[in-house]
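_Full entry_
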Amino acid sequence: MQILVMAKRRDGVDLETIRPYFGVEIQAIWNLYTQGICRGFYSRADQPGPAILMLESDSVESAKSTLASLPMVERNMIDLDYIPLGPFLSLNHLFEA
């Protein structure tokens, strides 16, 4: 299952507080990438901010468990929104006629 993960800095956590963890966070994400868990990492083109991850995982719960060890997640600096993705089945309606 592919899961889109969007991070957001928690209210009250300023950039200067989170900045020292950028390097270890990116290293942890890179480790997930080399294991085939993180399939891609992106940023929004319309605004700066945290990375957007594309994960390969058996379930949302499994993805949450995997990302719980990220340094910024462990320190309650960011919240993660998990969006499970599946095939777009609405196209079936076009072929039913």
Q: What stands out?
A: Residues 22-34 form the longest helix (13 residues). Helices lie at 15-18, 22-34, 60-67, 71-74, 92-95.
